Amino acid sequence: MQVVSEKSSSANDWRRIVIKVGTSTIVDASGEIKYPVINRLSQTLTQLQKSGYDIILVTSGAIGVALQQMKMLKRPTDIPSQQALAAIGQSYLMAIYNQSFAFYQQHVGQVLLTYDVFNNKQMLQHTIDAIEAMLAQHVIPIINENDVIAVDELDHQHSFGDNDRLAAIVTHETNADGLIVLSDIDALYTDNPYVNPTAKKIPLVTQVTPELMASASGSSDLGTGGMATKLYAAEYLISKQRQMILINGKNPATILDVVAGKKIGTLFKGV
């Protein structure tokens, strides 16, 4: 496992930043929407945007939000039901974001993507052009996977993995300086800290090794991602000479500390 525990770099020189929010960050284990967290996220990203940063938000949570709206206790296993929930939840999720950001007088725009966009140069260029146009107008793009039609990514192949890989690809294709991933854990550890109290925090990872991947497993109850998908995203970004930072999403204002250069969470950066 190639990890470094001393003298890590920071994100204080980043100007274009992708922030990825997982389902567990905005929906709690009982299925209730975490409105205060979304509000603090909106406030934080608005503050960064108004300070001159280019901000792109990649969000999961459509199905998690729909479960709460439809008063369903468990995520269905059949694909058509998941597609329906994605459609219901996405509209409500964007309504929440719109209302939350509007309170801080920040405009946002929705971008729904499928995996084939990145395999089609013309479609990809159109997508990037739209994102660039929004950023030029000081609008924060809010990106999610179009789970209504991208059925392979629901419960089958997980090509994006709860949007961790999607966020990594967006980071690269939009030429962002780095990706900040908000999770339900505050860093990468040598083992699962909820199970092993002796697990140690890893502040810097310079290479995602097979040993590191083998130590990552599990996913949240409402989402499809876990630590493994985050490591795949980090591996991808390191291969593209880009960086990723994993932090706890409980208090999104911590993003400001990351951007200020404080050593928080785990930084993934090639040597």
Automatic annotation (TrEMBL):
Keyword Transferase: yes
Domain Aspartate/glutamate/uridylate kinase residues, every copy: 16-248
Pathway where it operates: Amino-acid biosynthesis; L-proline biosynthesis; L-glutamate 5-semialdehyde from L-glutamate: step 1/2
Catalytic activity line of the entry: L-glutamate + ATP = L-glutamyl 5-phosphate + ADP
Localization annotation: Cytoplasm
One GO MF term attached to the UniProt entry: glutamate 5-kinase activity
PROSITE patterns named in the record: GLUTAMATE_5_KINASE
InterPro entries hit by this protein: AceGlu_kinase-like_sf, Asp/Glu/Uridylate_kinase, G5K_ProB, Glu/AcGlu_kinase, Glu_5kinase, Glu_5kinase/COase_Synthase, Glutamate_5-kinase_CS
Coiled-coil region list: none
Annotated residues for binding of substrate: S60, D147, N163
Residues given in the record as ATP binding sites: K20, S183, D184, T224, G225, G226, M227, A228, T229, K230
GO cellular component: cytosol
SUPFAM superfamilies registered for this protein in UniProt: Carbamate kinase-like (SSF53633)
Top EC category: transferase
EC number: 2.7.2.11
Pfam families, per database record: AA_kinase
Main location: cytoplasm
UniProt KW keywords: Amino-acid biosynthesis, ATP-binding, Cytoplasm, Kinase, Nucleotide-binding, Proline biosynthesis, Transferase
Protein's job: Catalyzes the transfer of a phosphate group to glutamate to form L-glutamate 5-phosphate.
Family: Belongs to the glutamate 5-kinase family.
Name of the protein in its database record: Glutamate 5-kinase
Gene: proB
